[in-house]
Amino acid sequence: MIAAVRIGTNPKGKSTIINRLMKSNYMFTSCTEPRAKYGISHMVRGSIEFIWLTEETCGESLWSEVFKDYYEREHDEERGREIVLLANLHGDALDYPDQVEFLKQFSSCFLVYLMPGHKKDELESKISPKKTIYIYIDPKKSKVLDDQINTIDTVKLEMGETLQFAGNIESIESKYIDKRRQALSHLEREVSRLSMEESSKSRNKAILKRKELNNEGLKIDKEKDKKIRKEIKELWEEVDNKSLGIEHFFRELGHIYKIFISDSDENPRIISVNGPSKQNVLTLPEYYAELLISSNTIELLDGDSISINEAWLLAICNRIDKRFPKLRVFVISILGLQSSGKSTLLNALFACKFAVSVGRCTRGLFMRLLFLEKDLSDQLDVDAFILIDTEGLGAPENMDEIESEKKDRMLATFAMGISNLTIINVLGESMNELTEILQIAIVTMARLEKVGMSPDIIMVQHVSENNIAKLSEPEQKFRNALQRALKIVKEKDDEMGSQNLECLDIIDVRIKNGKLLKLFSPFKDGATVYSPPSKKYHKDVVSLYNSIIDDCENQKEKKNFSDWYKLIKSYWDAISHENFALRFKNITEINDFIELDKQITMMKGTIDIAFLTHKELIKEKIRSVTQKNFTSKDSKVINNDQIRVECHRLIENELNKFSRFKNQSHCEQSILIRNKLSNEHQKFIDKQLEKILKMRKQFSGRKDREQEANKIWELLYNEISMSSKNDNPTIDEKINNEVIEVYKNYDSYNFPEFWRSYLDRIIPDLSQISAYEFLDKIRNLRMSSVLDQNIITSFKEKINSMLDQNLDEIDHFHNGIVRNLRGEIDKILNELSVFWKLKLKTKFKMNVHVYALLNFIIKMVKIQNQWDKENTPLGVLNQKKDEYLKMIDIRLQYVHSHISEGHIAGDFFFLLRAIQKKAINAENCDRINFLRGNTWINSSKTIRLKYFIELAEQIHDNGDLNKGVLHFSGPRENIEKWFENKVNLDERTNKGQSYKETFDTEFEDVRQKIHNCKSYEDVKIFVNNYMTQVDGIEYQMNVKDNSITENFTLFREAIEKELDAEKELNIRGNGRYRLKNELLKKPSDDNLIMKNIGCTIPCPWCGSLCWGTRGHDKDPGISRKHFTSHQPPGLNGVSYEGTNKLTVQACHNILDETGVVICKVRKKWREYKNQDHPNWIFEPHSMRVINDIMRWFFQMLHKDIANYRDLKAADESELKKNSCFYNDYNNIISVLKQEFN
């Protein structure tokens, strides 16, 4: 090998001189080649160009006068004929001692070009004078080499063993690095050669199959297409299995390092007998760092396992950081589809040696550190470029494979997210697939936490000259696609969970300025392998290089290497945990998903309203059926079974398609019971009136009538009360009786103690009750402990959910409920015990049963009271007290049936009462519609924003920190109670107007229709039909008295008189049907209103409320999982083991391998998520505004929460690290209010 070096500088440099001896005047990079007009290449200095000196490369004189004779000599058979290799070192040799030292190991001869003003002794100390030829350059002479080339003794060119990397290397300590480099180069080359030989057959088959697939793409044969893809995938798997690269060796070193570094010095688990010592292994990162510093390429991300060896990478980067503590870097990555020439482009731009080949060669991500010349470094304010080469995306054989496509999106997002500039390399006109990947990358970057990088992109498109004119449309589509991605993350940042919109500003500006695309000519001038390199391609490379230099110079914030490498692992972890954006193929799918979610929510609300309306219509039909049977002339005996069958048939016919209402027969049951009881009450009252009127014909005095009416009422009440008392115990008695029956022989604990706790009616605080025992190894004692707060929260939530689920379809108490509950409670306790490997204490389990039963009683009593009011004899009777008293009074007053019946029909308690019912329903609807008109009521997002705005203002403006502490001690109960109070506030300015208008309209309509009736039968039909339009009035006009028919006019006048009298009272303001607030329904009792708050189940770890719709956990599929904007867990009382300091890191930022301790049991965070709480999503489905306010809450409250929970406040360093420090309240609250508005 001959090494050519120079000392000093001259306009006609060494490379220019040597090129004149070669076949091509541009064989080596020089200042006279065409591209030199763009300036001196900043990357070439210090590099070495090699070329074989053969007849094909040498000029005519150099070949004929020197090397032809050399090659024609006889050589011994063992060594054969050795080819001469010329190594040309660019730059002043005095500036590059490492390169000179490297060449010294292999060179048979040095050609040293001495530029004007320099002497040969300047380099003699560094190289052997015996094998050096000095060539003095005189700028005045045109020929500088011809005279001296003949002086080269070609005998000295014999290299002997110099190409054997272990030979002729001086064995001194200072040469260890060079030895390692030589050995590595030899290993890399030999391994690559062997791998290519082993895998060439499979590789070639795969390439041919891919061509076949491309051809098949024109013919639409899905089965054949699928078969070819499978074959290609199998062939590439064969290639992978037969391929071995230098990166595989370094992966093993990384794993060895990780094992050794995790081994304890006190209790070592690794005992190395003949292997390396721990001390030797721990120095491995230093050696690897030397390779990176020396411009070697190293693996950043393992493309096979899709992972980063954190310990290994950080150790390497730490060594670089120590050597260059303030190294400023500019990171450049390249993305493109497979075999699009990414590595080739990087090599052309920066004289790198990223691996290139036909088909797939790069797996994962590789990086190279490229130090800049001082003048360029000063110009750019950057010390080095970091180049990242990525695995080819969109392999055809992996099309439509979900995991493979997701991997592409992950790699693209990661490469862009950690780079200052990403080159998008496109081969040809088609860019659809790459466009979709980049869209998702943009969305994902916006969703991740800020990392201080502002990525930029340049698209390089390689096309033939013939196709340049066709590119305007694809380019515009590409721009539009990226702009759509930017638009959606900005306009729908809450639905998308965008947190880092600022990072996309540079991309946005470049697209708008039209500086996105650079066109590249083909790499070669011609279509064959032997075609010469394209000058146009070289020109395009220089243009791109200048653009990169400009971008770097214009970069506002320069990043230190120490900051950059620390974000790599955290950013990859964030991407690995990101499962929202990355699961979509493109931006259209994301947009459709968001819109579909909104439509589903709206549809659920519409369906609920439709079913409610349908339910009311069915109830009206049932009332009509029951009334018809009770008032039928032919029915002397009421057949309840026949009515029930008819009602069931009606329900089945009407609701056959709506399984949700198949269980609504209790509507029919309720109406049937009320009608039956009303009929019995009427008979009892009629019987008592008949007795009284036999003794006294008329009661003209009001006081007398009231006394008699009260007597009849008392008799009726006592009659019903006695029969009910004998038949039906109270709800408390029913529950207590079943509790005794179920628990008295329960062997798990002492029944008397359980019964006392149960009768006390004090719900036990489970967080304060010792739950289990554990062994304190230090003191060798068994200690008792309460359950961790987050377990208690989750545990109580399970119990309450179980109660709600059991009571959801129940409308009244029945035997067996308590027994079922006991089984469900035992099941939950057993799951807790098995899951956490705890032996729960008997007393704790007893208190859990008491807790569940007392909560059950509260819920059950409310349900039962509502049922009793509508369905029990006393309940129905109490509702009708005023009605019966008035009816008795009228009949005592008028005696004659036709007059009394007219007054009763027209009285408030029947027609007027029905009118009032309609008016009340209208007022209730108006109130509900008014609430729905408040936009914030209709969205769980705005409901929570309003709540947190008010909570923040109470804390900040009023200094009420206790209010915040109380909220986070029970977020679900507090927000639901707040919402109930909010919706129950009647803020209408026109209260009662809807009631009045409806009442007046209905009144006039009824009055007119009664007046138009021509017979008693007409009145009866109208009144009975009108009564069926409202619920809760069981009056049936069915007087069997001929005097009414004979005196119809008096009967009708009695009705009209009663109506008019009440109207007059109403005008004076003291009518009996004036509106009273207690008659109105509370909006909080409206399920459709309360559903708007959404799911309020808290995260079992951080306590943040779920953002799903109400009841979504009963849906099928993925939508049943809970999701939320995870908050600092310290708000929920989660603390570090040992220190008891509140934790700050949100759930989605906790690494899978992080250890957590639950009830003294250690486990990985991954196990806690996937095994303990598979019904929760712990990924950042987040809203920026909620994240910010939660951090502010923690910043303000962590000390008070710690005091409240008997823990310790969070460290200041933790607060700063997790952005819970110095948060600007005014900025946060203004953004919250803007979002709310």
UniProtKB/TrEMBL annotation:
<dbReference type="InterPro" id="IPR030383">
    <property type="entry name" value="G_VLIG_dom"/>
</dbReference>
<dbReference type="GO" id="GO:0005525">
    <property type="term" value="F:GTP binding"/>
</dbReference>
<dbReference type="Pfam" id="PF25683">
    <property type="entry name" value="URGCP_GTPase"/>
</dbReference>
<comment type="similarity">
    <text>Belongs to the TRAFAC class dynamin-like GTPase superfamily. Very large inducible GTPase (VLIG) family.</text>
</comment>
<keyword id="KW-0175">Coiled coil</keyword>
<dbReference type="Pfam" id="PF25496">
    <property type="entry name" value="URGCP"/>
</dbReference>
<dbReference type="InterPro" id="IPR052986">
    <property type="entry name" value="VLIG_GTPase"/>
</dbReference>
<feature type="domain" description="VLIG-type G">
    <location>
        <begin position="326"/>
        <end position="569"/>
    </location>
</feature>
<feature type="coiled-coil region">
    <location>
        <begin position="177"/>
        <end position="216"/>
    </location>
</feature>
<dbReference type="InterPro" id="IPR027417">
    <property type="entry name" value="P-loop_NTPase"/>
</dbReference>
<dbReference type="InterPro" id="IPR057365">
    <property type="entry name" value="URGCP"/>
</dbReference>
<protein>
    <recommendedName>
        <fullName>VLIG-type G domain-containing protein</fullName>
    </recommendedName>
</protein>
